[in-house]
Write a structure and sequence with these properties.
CATH architecture of the largest domain: 3-Layer(aba) Sandwich
Largest sheet: 8 strands, mixed
Oligomer: single chain
Distance between the termini: 33 Å
CATH class of the largest domain: Alpha Beta
Shape: globular
Number of strands: 11
Length: about 250
């Protein structure tokens, strides 16, 4: 399941450049988001690990980026996490990957706008709520336009203003939920839950059987919301990041 969900998540949030390197997926997206600018050591590895790390460090240093590895309990080769720790790579962003079997979903109490094509209005609202600058917005636009599987961009309006938005990506029978955000002034009013239900409903109607999401463990409100919806943890991942550009 770890490999399956890691593959789906990379397809749902594509990098702008990818290098396949002896079982490692090396991803770049101009520094925007860790998941799109990190090494995922997902498959069997045969070459010398020390040399592979050095080459990855070279890739990222050329771009002015810290070298980052996205780790799970099944990252290969065995012992890679300890090796990176010994080199001074720090743990960051411990994240829970959770799933929900889609069957009987709660009814929704408010309307949401569901778009299957990325629009400037949705992107602007998402960047405003997420407090992203113009450069981040431009990179995110490129990333989202590279999504190959079907996607749904959802938003909820209150008095003509978007107060919550998020997106879902459907691949096979898996629906990935990403970038759910609610305006600070409208939190604790149920809009996040309603948005989630709309996205889950879209996925179910489109053939999804399982939903998955990634939530950082330092985000108690999101963890509480997803628990109430019935999500449960399958595994965790974390990042190992160099202290500086190497």
């Amino acid at each position: 399941m770890i490999r399956t969900l890691e593959e789906k998540a990379m397809n749902a949030w594509p990098a702008l450049q990818v290098v396949l390197y002896d079982g490692w997926i090396v991803r770049f997206a101009d520094g925007y988001t860790r998941r799109a600018n990190s090494v995922t050591p997902l498959y069997a590895s045969n070459q010398d690990t020390e040399e592979k790390i050095r080459l990855c460090e070279h890739f990222y240093s050329q771009r002015g980026l810290k070298t980052t590895f996205k780790m799970t309990s099944e990252s290969t080769p065995a012992g890679l996490d300890a090796l990176l720790a010994g080199k001074g790579y720090q743990v960051d962003a411990l994240t829970s990957v959770q799933t929900l079997a889609l069957s009987d979903l709660e009814s929704v109490d408010c309307a949401a706008k569901l778009e299957e094509t990325l629009s400037e209005a949705w992107l602007s609202a998402q960047c405003r709520l997420g407090k992203l600058g113009d450069r981040q917005k431009a990179i995110q636009s490129r990333i989202l336009q590279h999504i190959a599987p079907p996607a749904c961009f959802a938003s909820i309006d209150v008095d003509g203003e978007v107060v919550a938005c998020g997106m879902g990506v459907l691949e096979d029978a898996f629906l990935g939920i990403f970038d759910v955000v609610t305006a600070e002034a409208h939190r604790r009013h149920g809009y996040g839950k309603q948005l989630m239900l709309h996205l889950l409903g879209w996925g179910w109607r489109s053939g999804a059987k399982t939903a998955y999401l990634q939530v950082m463990l330092n985000n108690p409100p999101a963890l509480s919301l997803y628990e109430k919806l019935g999500f449960s943890e399958v595994y965790r991942y974390w990042y190992r990041t160099s202290l500086s550009v190497l």
